[in-house]
Design goal:
Layout: H1 6-11, H2 16-35, H3 38-45, E1 46-49, E2 52-55, E3 58-61, E4 67-73, H4 77-88, E5 94-100, H5 101-106, E6 113-118, H6 125-138, E7 145-151, H7 155-158, H8 168-181, H9 185-193, H10 202-207, E8 211-217, H11 240-249, H12 258-268, E9 286-292, H13 294-307, E10 311-319, H14 323-337, E11 344-350, H15 364-376, E12 382-388, E13 400-404, H16 407-413, H17 418-423, H18 427-434, E14 437-438, E15 449-455
Length: about 450
Amino acid sequence: MYIQNASELIRNGHTVAERHARRLCLEGAEAALSAVEPSKLMKSKVRLAGRKLIADSNVIDLEKFKKIFVIGGGKAALPMAEALESILADKITAGIVNVLDSQLRTAKGKRRIRLHAATHPLPSIVGQEGVLQMLELVGKPDPGTLVICLISGGGSAMLPLPAEGVDLVEKVEITRRLLHSGATIQELNAVRKHLSATKGGRLAERLYPNRVLSLVISDVVGNRLDSIASGPLYPDPSTFKDAERILKKYGIWKDLTPGAEKELGDGVAGLVPETPKPGSRFFTKVSNVIIGGNDDACDAVTRRLNRLKCRSEVLTTGYEGEARSAGMFMGSVVSYKGRKSRPAGYVAGGETTVSVKGDGRGGRNQEFAIGAAMKIDGNKGIALISLGTDGLDGSTDAAGALVDGSTIERSKAIGRFAEESLLRNDSYTFFESLGDLVMTGPTGTNVNDIAVAVLV
């Protein structure tokens, strides 16, 4: 079981109908997390047939390569690396992947792929050292070398290597300010790419002419390869001028530190080469394979709920925008749907943002849940769970939260008010008081967020 406090969350329902709806929501969430377990995704798309490595529709003859290196990083890098080792075994020459420090402390066993610590959501010097070691391991590019890159959610922060002249501390501060300003993942990545020596296709540039196979678990709405981990092995459609525009939009441009100001200013002036664009030769020897994403999680929810006699459907796998607003919209949708037929389940996936203006604790899934609770208030037999598939929502230890039609009434009874909690960005305290935080711990994967609503 991924959800550690499922029994408590079910008991928090005040009526039989609420408890049943909560149980079904949790069943759906469990199915989603199980379906996107990285080793399952790897083994469903990657296999060895004799001396041929088959990754989806790509067939690579291993006889053509003298060396096989494995590099990469992200929240799912550890189980991805373990699965790849079980497939390729001693055919791997060597490897290094950046994993969360918490995973490194608990990992056991000998490996051909060495694990290196990294941090998230903000990058650190320890992760940068891991990237430098990866580049040193691969060495001088050679057509007789196969490099397999394992990329997953969190890779932008966990695979840091600033452009020459840019200090990592500068890049961290810019990232932090963009996150707190409510910038979209696409905006954040456009800036990060133009302050990086590896993102935005620059890793492909460094590795050329090695043969490169990139195995990707997507944490980006629409599975955009130019955005996942900031697209280290994919053409970059954004420009230095885009980065400038975004930083001005959020009032950060005027406060840039000298290194970042020079790099971006020189880029806008054409004095620094742009990131590699579509059609560049650097991508001619790169194959990018998405082995899993939000679709897999949402589809797993509908399969589980349908088996439990709860007719269900996926509403979207692309919700974005301010978390509380997205939650309110989904709450409105399921309230309307509930007038027609029950039991029914509705699933949505995506990734929202939070514009942090208060001094509280919380995360986008918890704010999404409060927004939904405000719209389903008073509706009997409705429950909704919103959680991050990585098990970490914002800077909290919760994955998300579970609400039902009586959540607002229960919160008022103990002196907690939804509007005030949103104003202070203090959704964690709101749900902690109700006992409705969803606790999973780090799941070892990340395919965005999911919301599951059940009407009974």
